[in-house]
Every structure is written in C-alpha cells, then in structure tokens.
Amino acid sequence: MPPKLKDLQKQCKAARLDHRGKIPELIQRLKDHKDREESSPDDQEDPKCDAILVTQSKVSSEEETKRDAKDAFGQALAEEELDVKMVMGELYVGNPHGPGLAGLTTEVASLKGEVNSLEGEVKDLKGEVNELRDHVSTLRLAGQEYRRVRNRFISTFKRDKLDDMTQSDLDIIREGNITAHGGDAAVDALLYEGVEGRQDTYAFEELYGMHPSDVKKITHKETIDILNLHAGVRADNDKTGTDEFYKRFADFIQAFKRSDPKVNYLIGESTNVTRAAYWSLLKCQRYTDSA
C-alpha cells in the first residue's frame, strides 16, 4: 500500500524537514535524511566549521515561531545551494544571503569600534570645554578689577591734565588705587600657567592662602574678594595685620575647601560654616594700628 501524504508530512515534521511538496518529493527528502543519519560521524560534521542560521517570522506565538523557523531552515538547506566566499579576509559558507550578512556583521563590529573611539574623543573635548569655561570665569572676574584700573587712568588724566575732576572721579581713583596696589587672585593665578609661568607657588599661597590651580576654579566673586583682601593686608608695608585676622582667614580657607565649590555659601541655611567664617573675617579688625 503506497504511503499517504499525511503520513509522509508527519514524518518530515518529526525529522524537522520541510513537509511541503508532493509524495515523491517527500519520499526522496526522507530517504536523503536517512542516508545522512547513517553516514559516518566524520562525514556529518566538520569540527572546524560553525554555522549561524537566522530567519524572520511573523508568528506571534513562541512555539509557532520556533516551528516556523525550523521549517524555514530545513527548506533553505534542502533547496538552496551553499556558497563559499571570502568576506573581509575571512572564509564564510552559507546560502547566497549568508556571506552578505557576515560582511554586514563584521562591518557593524567595525562601526562599533569607531563609535567607541568617537565617544572617547567627545569625552576629551568635554574636558577641554570645561577647562575653557573655568578660564572664562576667571577672566571675567579679573576683568572687573582691570576695569577699575583703566577707569583710574582716565580720571587721573582729568585730574592732572584737564583740571576737571568730579567727586565721581575721586571715587574712581580711590577704588583704582586699591586694585592697583592690592591683590588680584584671579589674574595672578594665570601667571603660573605654561612652561614660562612662575614656579614660586609658595609665594602665591602666602598671599592668597590657596594654590593657583585651585584659585582658577573659583567663579564666586565674593570669595575672590576675600583672597584679595588677605593679600592686601599681607603685603602692606606700612601696616601690620592682626593675629586674629590671619586666624579667621585660615578658618575661612579651611571651611571653603571642605564645602562644595559649586554652591554659593552665602545663600542657604544659617548654620553654613563657610558663610559664618566669611562674615566673621569681614567684621574682624585687620590692622594692629586700627581703631
């Protein structure tokens, strides 16, 4: 009795073969499968050859998806000839679409490497941008002091050469004198940059209480003013600073170094240690001969 189509289809499904086709085709497919199984293990598998099978399924059920994939794989292996091609210097074997997919996979891996390299460059650029922002902030603070010196130059010219000085000019000259003969932490910190920069950082720290590299990071004007105040008292040849002033300045520096530099310590809770040290220093007697 000749085999029935349904029986042959069931056998093909059980053997994970394509179950579509006419009776003679299914019989031959099952026969070829049996011959492959009865061949020697050496003929069945090359241990040096790996294979990756990928198919696309529109079935939503997981079990149906697996079954559909097995059918598709079986049909591809039974109906399509295998190609051997050199892709990106590597030997690949598969159906006509396989080597192209292998090349695409290799290209994707190469692109990922380029992306990682670009991410590293972007990170370096962000670091440079942050450094430039620090410089801009420092120069902005320095520019306010330099403006006083230039205003002083013009007002002094009016006083000495034009004999046309107002009360405003007197105030400008007085403020300019303080800046010209006092400290300027923001600008002086830049003098220690580069190969030809100053090397005597100990002198800078004696004046401003901090290392130049730390001062360059400060963007808070009131903090720069405090450093400049200390430098003016420390460098004064005519007056002597009080021990209490120097002590309170040291307290402020310690509190400031422990605080978050991104937070304005003059704003916030009343128990802020840095703010307390700031106001304590401003209220302190600066010179021994002061009233």
Automatic annotation (TrEMBL):
Q: What Gene3D superfamilies does this protein's entry cite?
A: 1.20.5.170, SAP domain
Q: Which UniProt keywords apply?
A: Coiled coil
Q: Does the keyword Coiled coil apply?
A: yes
Chain intervals with Basic and acidic residues compositional bias = 20-39
The answer on whether this UniProt entry bears the keyword Calcium reads no
Region (Disordered), start-end ranges = 20-48
Note the coiled coil stretches, chain numbering: 101-142
- Report the domain of life of the source organism: Eukaryota
What is the name of this protein? SAP domain-containing protein
Per the UniProt entry, what species is this protein from, by scientific name? Choiromyces venosus 120613-1
